[in-house]
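Reviewers asked in the last cycle whether our approach scales beyond single polypeptides. To address this, we selected a multi-component target totalling 700 residues and predicted its structure end to end. The input consisted of the following lines:
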Amino acid sequence: MIRTEEMLLNVGPQHPSTHGVFRLVVKIDGEIITEATPVIGYLHRGTEKLAENLQYTQIIPYTDRMDYLSAMTNNYVICHAVETMMGIQVPERADFLRVMAMELGRIASHLVAWGTYILDLGATSPFIYAFRDREMIINMLNELSGARLTFNYMRVGGVKWDAPEGWVDGVKEFIPYMREQIKGYHDLVSGNEIFLDRVKGVGVYSKEDAISYSLSGPNLRSTGVKWDLRKDEPYSIYDRFDFNVVTKETGDCLARYHVRLEEIEESLKILEQACEQFPAEGEILAKVPKIIKAPKGEAYVRIEAPRGEIGCYISSDGKKEPYRLKFRRPSFYNLQILPKLLIGENIANLVAILGAVDIVLGEVDG
Amino acid sequence: MVEELLHSSPGIANFGIFFLLGAVLLLIVLGFVTYGILAERKVMGYMQLRHGPNRVGGKWGLLQTVADVLKLLLKEDIIPKAADKPLFILAPVVAFAPSFMVLATIPFTDKFQFADIGVGLLYYIAVSGLTVFGMVLGGWASNNKYALLGGMRAAAQMISYEIPLVMSVLGIILLTGSLNLNDIVEQQENVWFILLQPVAFVVFFIASIAELNRTPFDLPEAENELVAGYHVEYSGFRWAFFMLAEYVYLFAMSALITVIFLGGWLPLFDFLSFIPGAVWFSVKFSAVVFVYIWLRSTLPRFRVDRLMEFGWKVLFPVALANIFLTALIKTLFF
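The resulting structure, written as structure tokens, was:
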């Protein structure tokens, strides 16, 4: 009789496919996973606790470092929460700048998700094509905010800088270019037999599972749940734009892949309309007091970030710092279904499933 | 000359001559590996909107690989404490030696060949199968879980793909009636075997990628899954030996494909025969290498369980059907 035993394998925190410092302790029988335990916290910086000693404007740069691939949406959620508490009306031009920045950020974030996902599956070139196109977005956001990754662009009541001359035209030119690139992406990867073999029917979960695990964003919409806060609870000026909520029915990795790519196209639609409606002039910052003090009470706002629903809860006792601040970080919630999905899969599928969940460790660990 | 030497009585002088010839071949191969790696990095670079190496040795980066190899040789020799030391040291040698041995039979031109043995093709396939021992040994001796998984994958992959590889060339052997690589080339005087045996070529090419452990079949060292697979614990010159083995096999396999499918040193058309055979060989050979590099920068990786399925359920039956058809056509029409 041959003695066999299960092997305990540490995937991460230094592993090429864990997208940062994520650690997964898996029990494997041969290459089949029998148990998976995620270990997180390697990038924990205590954003929420730190925020309790910071003024509201000072918290904004910390949010940049949570989901560092789409810092604009994080900027927005904290500003939006404070504005909701104080009842500040944001000027129209500022709203347009915010929406355009967020949608550009969404495209950039999905591009990284696409590129790294294909890289995880073993093809090296698409990653570089995605980063080439992301670079154009980064440059545009750089013109806007002066930073390439941690923008610190938004302020309570508006945005910090106005768009430089010709910026909107630059965005306008980018839209047809990006549409053309998406076609190229589909040509290059979407029909590839090996790729389909890796992702089709892999990591499937049902609508009910997705909802009970509190998934959001593309991870939720890939199962057919039509839920997008931009449509269902419009914030900012999203109700002015005409776009679709992308859903797929199958709930596998391929569905998540397609949802992300199609969301890029929807974001381009929003950008196109925003460029047309962009007000020629106007204020970019509402009249807000020098020292922002949120009134006593609490507020919770949620918006649609590229990875799902990002929420911000503020409890204030009327001081210039929040009494308690809490972020609902979508990657953290999306990650929770992972141990369930991994059971019975092999190591190759581990990478495919984890990549399709699309986590950012800065956000998971907070 | 080699013929005479082979039949002469052994002596110091003969030994010296053979040794020198071996050294010359080694230098040629090392030269290829050096510039093969550079070519791979350059071609992949241009496919990926980069420039590739462009600093060391002028704007083409001509000395980049040399510098890299020197760096590897100077690195500290690390053997993990828990590793099985003798096997750990042995593994890279076991992986490399056969890769160099197979080169002996390949006829580069009608004159330049080291051993014109009757069963050249069989010799190639048999000896190249030995390399997997090096990989499994390395994976086992490292005492690392990723390395172990990589080693096991390597073993499974070799078994699954060696058989279609052999089966696909049987069609050609049926046509030529010889296992001698020189005979195989000479019989392609009128038409190359890639045209007579297209199915065999496709099967052979796919299986050869798996043999070479290159994308999309680079599962034993799948970076994104197993970090570096069987050689995860290797560094410095031991790691260089594994890499060297890989690139020498690339050299050998491309040469073999050139010989058995693309007519070896024979010219494309008769009126072009004033161009020397060595040039023809290197042109065809470079084209094959280019396709390998091209595939590497294009395709994602196979999944490990699908890999076995593909080998046994698709390639193997197709190769068998090809043998059957070839035999049928040969007996009925020739």
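The two ends of chain B are 37 Å apart (CA to CA). We regard this as preliminary and will revisit it once experimental data from Aim 1 are available.
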